[in-house]
Amino acid sequence: MTALALRGPQWVTLRQHRRALWWALALAAVAVAVMIASRLWSDEAVAALRDAGCAVGSTDRACFQAERDYVDGQWFARNLLGYISIGMLILPGVLGAFVAGPMLARELESGTHRLAWTQSVSPARWLAAKITVPAALSLAVVTPLSLVFHWSWSTGPANDYPTYWYEPMMFVSYGVVPMAHALLGLGVGTLVGLLVRRTVVAMGVTALLVGTALAVLAKLRPGFWPVQTLTGDEDAPVSAAWPLDRGMLTSSGERVLWEDCFAAPSVSAERCMSDRGGVIGFLDIHPASHYWPLQLVESGICLAVAALAALAAFRVLRARHA
User: How far apart are CA 32 and CA 167, in angstroms?
Assistant: First the structure.
């Protein structure tokens, strides 16, 4: 989407907020540069260790420094991605606050929206421009950020000293969830901006609501897809799996959780489990194959909420400015 291809209220919206757009593009470029640097730094650490003829965990004294340099390089690469993942986590709230505040509430607060409505632009078209332009631009920026993040993470930080796919900040940093979260933030920000009509207040309320929504999603995420239960001899760690509940089953099939027995005073966890009738161990997990189902379910929830918020915004606009 370019300014030359836009007409009417979409062009005006882009023109009004071009400075914020350039700042957003600059920050995205910095984030991409950091992720590329992380990947190159990690690859260089791997190459240096290999060129030294050493391996991780080597007992050869001659490899001590080479292995130490490798560890330092991988930790540095991981920390760089950690900073980016924090940005990806808060990005939906920032996008929503930007729409709720400067893009909507400020115009309603100052009354400049009336000028647009006198230029053969209906309130519905005006609001549609305030939604579609930031949505299209957000998707155009967040999508490549997500792809570059996965490319950068899928080397050292995903293997040695791993950050796992199910960790909260990792899960929201690549795949389709970042785009869905961005649209959720925009939808909530649009509705709040129309309801509150005060710039600073709208920005604060939006950030609070979006942050709460993301926290709730993270809390409910394990239940978005049926878990896989391992029992008996299968009760062992599975590579790249997301471990959830763990404990023992009684003869009647009831569950006794380890976390309940850890708090038992003066009794070992194993004794506590046995006293409660546990006869066979179990472990609930989400294997790595559940990554995409979990991503798609959460994205669907976010898109549904965003669509409902946008629909409510049009209804509010119609009710107040029919």
Answer: 21
